UniProtKB/TrEMBL annotation:
One GO term (biological process): protein transport by the Tat complex
Superkingdom of this protein's organism: Bacteria
Gene Ontology molecular functions: protein transmembrane transporter activity
Originating species: Acidovorax soli
Gene designation: tatB
Membrane-topology descriptor: Single-pass membrane protein
Coiled-coil blocks: none
Name the UniProt record assigns to this protein: Sec-independent protein translocase protein TatB
Keywords: Cell inner membrane, Cell membrane, Membrane, Protein transport, Translocation, Transmembrane, Transmembrane helix, Transport
GO cellular component, one term: TAT protein transport complex
Transferase found in the keyword field: no
The UniProt record lists the keyword Transmembrane: yes
Amino acid sequence: MIDIGLSKMALIGVVALIVIGPEKLPRVARTVGALLGKAQRYVADVKSEVNRSMELDELKKMKDTVENAARDVEQSIQTSASEFEKDLAQASGTASADLHDPFAVVPAYRHPGKNWRLKKGAMPQWYKARSGVRTKALSGAARVARYRPQKFH
């Protein structure tokens, strides 16, 4: 930033003390410090934005190179696939158009018949009833009513 030595700082301080006066000097110093802090934060924000934009440019370049490489690989795969289809057609004596029959039978959708909401436990219901296993959830009020002591008359 600005290189100011200790002697220059002392000279500026003495001049500021004489010009401004000892009463207003702390307030002015506080204001100057706040403005310097804002300026430093602004410079740091600008630096970070510049760095971010440089990284973004690098990422865009990298993305372009990866996309070009993927396009080249896709093109080479397509050429090798077409060569393979030609070789296969020549070997089997059929045209490659017969491989892609537009009237091919596609199986119809059939629902699997599962009911995922239905819980299937391995323990039989009669055993749960005998041993006192809870099979249904109770609300708080129902639980209080169930376990409330009964009055005997």
